[in-house]
Design brief:
Keywords: Coiled coil. Belongs to the BLOC1S2 family. Residues 1-16 have a biased composition (Polar residues). Helix content is 99%, strand content 0%. By secondary structure, it is mainly alpha-helical. The longest helix has 152 residues, at 2-153. The radius of gyration is 62 Å and the shape is rod-shaped.
Length: 154
C-alpha cells in the first residue's frame, strides 16, 4: 500500500509537474505572443506598403508607356513622309546636278559672249577713231578744195 500511495503520489506529482510545465509554456507563449504578434503585424504592414508602392509605381510607369506608345504611332505615321522626302531629295539632287551642269555651260557661253562683246567694243572704238579721222580729213579736203576753188575763181 505504501507503494501504491507512493506511486499515486509520484503520479500526482508528475501530473502536477506536467500541469506546471504546461502553465509555464502557456505563460511563455503569452509572453512570446506579444513580440510575435508585433512582428507578424509589422510584416503585414510592410507587405501592404510594398503592395501599395508597387501599384503606384506601376501606375506611374503607365504614363511614360502611354507617351512612348503615342510617340511610336506618330513616328510610324511620319515614316511615309520620310520615304517621300527621301525620294524628293534624290530627285532634287539629280535636278541640282543637272542644273549645276547647265549653269557651268551657261557660264562658259557667257564668258565667250563677254569676250566677243569686248572685241566688238574694241572694234567699234577703232572704227569710231577712224571715222573721226576720216571726218576731219574730209573736212580739210573740202575746205582745201573750196579755198582753191575760190582762189582760182578770183
Amino acid at each position: 500500500m505504501n507503494q501504491a500511495k507512493g506511486n499515486q503520489f509520484a503520479a500526482q506529482a508528475s501530473s502536477n509537474a506536467d500541469r506546471e510545465g504546461k502553465k509555464q509554456t502557456s505563460r511563455h507563449r503569452k509572453i512570446d505572443a506579444g513580440p510575435r504578434k508585433a512582428i507578424v503585424e509589422s510584416c503585414e504592414c510592410l507587405k501592404k506598403i510594398v503592395d501599395l508602392d508597387t501599384k503606384s509605381t506601376t501606375t506611374a510607369l503607365g504614363v511614360p508607356e502611354a507617351v512612348n506608345n503615342s510617340a511610336i504611332l506618330k513616328y510610324r505615321d511620319l515614316e511615309g513622309y520620310i520615304n517621300e522626302l527621301e525620294e524628293n531629295c534624290e530627285s532634287v539632287e539629280q535636278s541640282g546636278k543637272f542644273t549645276h551642269m547647265q549653269i557651268l555651260k551657261t557660264n562658259v557661253q557667257l564668258d565667250t559672249l563677254e569676250k566677243r562683246v569686248g572685241n566688238l567694243e574694241a572694234l567699234t572704238d577703232q572704227l569710231d577713231k577712224w571715222s573721226s579721222q576720216l571726218e576731219k580729213t574730209t573736212r580739210r579736203y573740202r575746205d582745201d578744195r573750196r579755198t582753191k576753188h575760190r582762189d582760182s575763181f578770183w
